[in-house]
């Protein structure tokens, strides 16, 4: 067996979600040949599941008055707990209004400002002014000083992805769906493309490109219990990690969303709280104002998630066979609002639990939601370590999110980074003339063929991929969750190391022929365990609390020792990632008080004394 | 009370394997509380038969990947609770679409072809000006665009459509609805005559025989009946003017 086909293109994009498609459009507009690979048809990408919206400081709505890129910048940096790259955050906040308006030009039906006085479902009396009528409006999201989240009812990700994909269709950009990149072709200095496995036929296909862009999304499924789609397994991140020369940034920075619906962990958008929803405990008591008097339910996600766990630990959660949960209450927003502006979550509650949020409370609890870490890149999207490799979106650590991403900033990142990095990719590609030995390609293909043959033959053993995978998920959920501590993280690291060793002995139970799904899972698992190790080991070594990384044994942020970014490498044959660190640039805003969360509460208490 | 034993009978065929023959295969499974077909099928794959092919992505009825024939009706498997079904369940792949294997069908290629044939994008001569404010639009118009835009391209309407089952090039309710989305969008400058070129024919709006199974099958309640009627009326009038 050898590769069935070889495709040669200027730009290869791995992932057809919003970041990938937006970058593809930019590169194609520069006259380059672009091919996008995707596990699924583009319109099935996880980007479509983003319900809430995109942050951009358009300042059109009543509660957005006075907003500006500066205010958005400050919110983003505070949200990141000073873990983000401030140059990147600055670039992002300046460009995101253009990205949003361009999406409007392409066809996104953003909700618009309606002039006049009205009563917001949360009870506030508001007036939208005539001069802003018909411009893009915004809703409230957590951790923001202004209402800044642009949206289309309950389906922002859906409309933006469909619009972006319509542009991809219009430009005739090639999308090869059901195609999974399983390794990068590189010589330790340059990246030349990927070896891919066709998920229709099982054939191996070679893609050679001047520039390869990883836009494969997050890795939430490492946790099993995640709001993420089942395809969010970090596959693109893992193949970059496997090169040994490309580092992953801040993998320990994992976001847990406050409101996912048990037991299936489906997301209930932050828009529900943005529009005025409450969190209640088992006594139907609204507890968030007690912890966060200022921001209440709309502190940043890391803070709300911790407060919820803290409250459940006091025995105030609702006990069920699936573990404790709290309640999301949007009944007071009224039937019309619930079934129009929040229809998607109303449908989810109805479909899966038979609950009507206009009259029923909806069970919620914090669950893995977003991967702040990823392939470390510079401000132009160039991956560290390999020339010709780029990364964008959730797969990347461009690093505008630091240790906590604000709601509405990731969907906004996809299109904005796609626009900015897409331009850089085009610039690089127009000047690139890679020279390489074809043996390199043959060797890469042979290596993957051998992996596949060994799995099918059970040559290295008969370990069961689903059992090992489950053990990996349980390890992360049990030991590397919202609250972390040294001994527990050590347990996680040693268990994951053991699983990693066992994963070298996977063997299939089915034939592995054609587009066999067990083979796909077995090819992915070792890389997924290595990503899990990067998370757990990075978390163990970071002896402070910052944003979503909350160490019970080191509860304070430590700017003296830890104002730095973790860089994890996986050297060939290693049993643990090698960790390195680089300084975090605070070019505009020195570290300070976030204005919400535990540190602010401590500061306020000491002032009162 | 003990849990029900489910008998799940699944269509099996992998067209990429030369010796494979289409057949039905039965799996026995204990029902659990709140079990969806997403949970049931994954359990079968992980515990009983790791070669079983099916598609799920979001498992929240948002992405449209998992449509299949569930006891004869096109439905999204992810949001189908086993408790709403009898204990004997038959699962077949969607008709009309090319089979990838077992329960997985190639809706992606079908819908891609549809987008290209109907030129399902905003047609405008205007250039984007990065320094200008967005063009104004009233909110009612935005909501009117969003209504047909909600379609998740799962293929349930196409699978249940008589015309689509017998006429290969028919664009189905999903296709007509997609065109309707651009017709209500003031940013799209196509005239009715131009739209007539796209859907004013038997592969488009005039291929519909009005049985409206599509409307019954839509898992997210896009108002297909009124969308189809609106496009048909508009195109009939446009046709008279030609």
Structure overview:
- The complex is a heterodimer of chains A (609) and B (242).
- Chain A is of the alpha/beta class and 609 residues long.
- In chain A, 63% of the residues are buried.
- In chain A, the strands form six sheets. In chain A, strands 1, 2, 7, 8, 9, 10 and 18 form a seven-stranded mixed sheet that branches. Chain A has a five-stranded mixed sheet with strand order 19-17-11-22-23.
- The longest helix of chain A has 25 residues.
- Chain A contains 17 helices and 23 strands.
- Chain A is globular.
- In chain B, the strands form two sheets. In chain B, strands 2-1-5-3-4 form a five-stranded mixed sheet. A two-stranded antiparallel sheet of chain B has the order 6-7.
- By secondary structure, chain B is of the alpha+beta class.
- Chain B is elongated.
- Chain B has two domains: 100 residues, Roll (Ubiquitin-like (UB roll)), CATH 3.10.20.30; 113 residues, Alpha-helical ferredoxin (Fumarate Reductase Iron-sulfur Protein, Chain B, domain 2, Orthogonal Bundle), CATH 1.10.1060.
- Chain B starts with a strand and ends with a helix.
- The mean pLDDT of chain B is 96.
- In chain B, a hairpin with a 2-residue loop joins strand 6 and strand 7.
- The longest helix of chain B is centred in the last third of the chain and has 18 residues.
- At the A-B interface, helix 3, helix 4, strand 13 and helix 10 of A face helix 1, helix 2 and helix 3 of B.
């Amino acid at each position: 067996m050898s590769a069935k086909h070889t495709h040669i293109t200027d730009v290869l994009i791995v992932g057809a979600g919003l970041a990938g498609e937006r970058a593809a459009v930019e590169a194609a507009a520069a006259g380059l040949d672009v091919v996008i690979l995707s596990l699924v048809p583009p319109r099935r990408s996880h980007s479509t599941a983003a319900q809430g919206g995109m942050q951009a400081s358009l300042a059109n709505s009543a509660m957005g008055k006075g907003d500006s890129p500066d205010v958005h910048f400050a919110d983003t940096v505070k949200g990141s707990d000073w873990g983000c790259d401030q140059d990147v955050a600055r670039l992002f906040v300046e460009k995101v209004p253009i990205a949003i308006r361009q999406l409007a030009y392409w066809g996104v039906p953003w909700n618009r400002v309606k002039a006049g006085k009205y009563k917001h479902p949360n009870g506030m009396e508001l007036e939208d002014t005539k001069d802003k009528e018909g411009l893009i409006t915004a809703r409230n999201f957590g951790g923001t000083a202004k209402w800044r989240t642009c949206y289309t009812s309950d389906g922002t990700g859906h409309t933006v992805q469909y619009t972006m994909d319509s542009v991809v269709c219009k430009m005739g950009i090639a999308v090869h769906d059901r195609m999974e990149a399983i390794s990068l072709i590189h010589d330790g200095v340059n990246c030349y493309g990927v070896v891919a496995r066709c998920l229709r036929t099982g054939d191996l296909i070679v893609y050679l490109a001047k520039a390869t862009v990883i836009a494969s999304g997050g890795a939430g499924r490492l946790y099993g219990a995640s709001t993420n789609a089942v395809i969010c397994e970090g596959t693109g991140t893992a193949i970059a990690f496997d090169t040994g020369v490309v580092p992953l940034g801040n993998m320990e920075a994992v976001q847990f969303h406050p409101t996912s619906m048990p037991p299936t962990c489906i997301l209930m958008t932050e828009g529900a709280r943005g529009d005025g929803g409450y969190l209640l405990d088992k006594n139907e008591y609204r507890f968030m104002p007690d912890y966060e008097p200022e921001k209440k339910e709309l502190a940043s996600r890391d803070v709300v998630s911790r407060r919820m766990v803290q409250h459940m630990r006091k025995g105030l959660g609702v006990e069920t066979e699936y573990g404790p949960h709290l309640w999301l209450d949007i009944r007071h927003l009224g039937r019309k609002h619930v079934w129009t502006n929040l229809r998607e979550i109303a449908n989810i509650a109805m479909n899966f639990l038979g609950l009507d949020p206009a009259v029923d409370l909806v069970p919620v609890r914090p669950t893995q939601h977003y991967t702040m870490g990823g392939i470390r890149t510079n401000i132009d999207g160039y991956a560290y370590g390999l020339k010709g490799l780029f990364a964008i979106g959730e797969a990347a650590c461009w690093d505008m999110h630091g240790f906590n991403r604000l709601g509405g900033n990731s969907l906004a990142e996809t299109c904005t980074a796609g626009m900015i990095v897409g331009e850089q990719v085009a610039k690089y590609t127009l000047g690139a003339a890679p020279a390489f030995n074809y043996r390199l390609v043959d060797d890469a293909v042979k290596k993957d063929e051998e992996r596949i043959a060994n799995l099918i033959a059970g040559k290295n053993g008969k370990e069961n991929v689903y059992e090992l995978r489950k053990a990996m998920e349980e390890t992360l959920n049990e030991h590397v969750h919202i609250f972390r501590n040294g001994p527990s993280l050590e347990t996680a690291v040693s268990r994951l190391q053991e699983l990693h060793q066992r994963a070298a002995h996977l063997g299939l139970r089915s034939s592995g022929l054609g587009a066999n799904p067990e083979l796909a899972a077995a090819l992915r698992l070792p890389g997924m365990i290595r990503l899990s190790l990067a998370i757990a080991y990075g978390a163990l070594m970071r002896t402070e609390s910052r944003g979503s990384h909350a160490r019970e044994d080191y509860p304070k942020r430590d700017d003296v020792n830890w104002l730095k970014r973790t860089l994890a490498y996986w050297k060939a044959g290693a049993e643990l990632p090698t960790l390195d660190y680089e300084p975090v640039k605070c070019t505009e805003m020195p570290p300070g008080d976030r204005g919400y969360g535990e540190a602010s509460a401590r500061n306020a208490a000491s002032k009162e004394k | 009370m003990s849990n029900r034993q489910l008998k799940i009978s699944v269509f099996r065929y992998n067209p990429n394997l030369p010796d494979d023959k289409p057949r039905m295969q039965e799996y026995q499974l204990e029902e659990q509380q709140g079990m969806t077909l997403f949970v049931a099928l994954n359990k079968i794959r992980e515990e009983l038969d790791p070669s079983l092919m099916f598609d799920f992505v979001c498992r929240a009825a948002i992405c449209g990947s998992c449509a299949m024939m569930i006891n004869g009706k096109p439905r999204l498997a992810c949001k189908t609770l086993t408790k709403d079904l009898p204990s004997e369940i038959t699962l077949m792949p969607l008709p009309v679409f090319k089979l990838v294997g077992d329960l997985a069908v190639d809706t992606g290629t079908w819908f891609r072809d549809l987008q290209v044939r109907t030129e399902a994008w905003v047609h405008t001569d205007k250039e984007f000006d990065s320094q200008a404010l967005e063009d104004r639009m009233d909110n009612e118009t935005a909501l009117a665009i969003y209504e047909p835009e909600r379609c998740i391209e799962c293929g349930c309407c196409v699978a249940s459509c008589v015309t689509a089952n017998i006429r290969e090039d028919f664009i189905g309710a999903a296709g007509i609805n997609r065109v309707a989305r651009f017709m209500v969008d003031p940013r799209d400058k196509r005239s009715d005559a131009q739209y007539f070129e796209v859907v004013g024919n038997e592969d488009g709006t005039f291929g519909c025989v009005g049985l409206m199974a599509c409307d019954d099958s839509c898992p997210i309640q896009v108002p297909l009946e009124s969308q189809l009627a609106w496009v048909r009326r508009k195109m009939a009038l446009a046709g008279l003017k030609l």
